[in-house]
Amino acid sequence: MRRKRVLPLAALLLCTPALAATAPAAASPQPAANGPLRILLTNDDGYNAPGIRAAFQRLTAAGHDVTIVAPLTNQSGTGTKTLSATTVAVKHPEAKVWAVDGTPGDSVAFGLSEVFEGRAPDLVVSGTNFGPNVAGLATHSGTVGGAVAALESGVPAIAVSTGGFAAPDPVATINAMGPTVDFLAKLIDRLRSLAKSGPLLPRGVGLNINHPVIGADGKGTASGTSTTFQDPQAPLVPDFTDSGDGTWKVSVKFAPQPAAKGGDVEAVSAGKIAISPMAADWNTGPGDFAKTSALLAGLRP
Questions:
Q1: What are the pLDDT digits (tens) for 121-141?
Q2: Are 72 and 66 contacting, i.e. CB atoms less than 8 angstroms apart?
Q3: Domain spans of the chain?
Q4: 275 vs 25, 98, 136, 210, CA distance in Å?
Q5: Per-residue model confidence (pLDDT) at position 223
Q6: Which CATH number fits domain 7-296: 3.40.1210.10, 3.30.420.10, 3.30.230.20, 3.30.43.10?
């Protein structure tokens, strides 16, 4: 049965000033009311990167049962790639930490199948990522890909990133991961409170969160939150130069376009936290589906 798109409901639940106390539509798994959540934590920067360690510490301090199942090495830009090899190496370097020599999707697949075998986690969190995952960057993001892998398996998922379109300052960005994971913990508490003993999010719906870097040191507080959509622009422009020997030199130019009103780029650029509801499938909305169906009407083999 084709999954229904419920993004407006997620937006209504999460980001209006006065939230209704109604639980989202049915989904699995369902956490115990007011109890700690069992969280699978992954990323694309690697299992020992500053962002995932900050998230682990903050969510553990909030009382949740957090297990890292993340790539052994940096897998930025791998998107939704998963299960493309016949074998995978896995290390277990410390308690609550599994390092998978593969993509974020591989890590989530291994975590759901083996680490959480028999009982799925209540939530998968992917991040926090170093740098933004907005606009076209999100489409190819390994951080978002990890969340998508969870959604495909019916597990609620949140992708989290720290940064904006401006060239990142490493120290400020790492500092900004503190406010990022503080907000993440607050958001999870909100979801758990609204869900009671039900699902954290509507089935098939995840969140892509982008937290700005505020202040020269990155320790400032965002000016607010905004429910956004993924800005349709693709800010990375490729260029290929013929080397004359059958190979081509590849370069990429960063060429951002004006931000779409209501999109994630606009929000982060304004110092706000962008929260974009997302689905794991690539179905169009009903309006675009109807328009495309009209174009194809009467077509025969």
A1: 999 999 999 999 999 999 999
A2: no
A3: 7-296
A4: 19, 28, 16, 7
A5: 95
A6: 3.40.1210.10
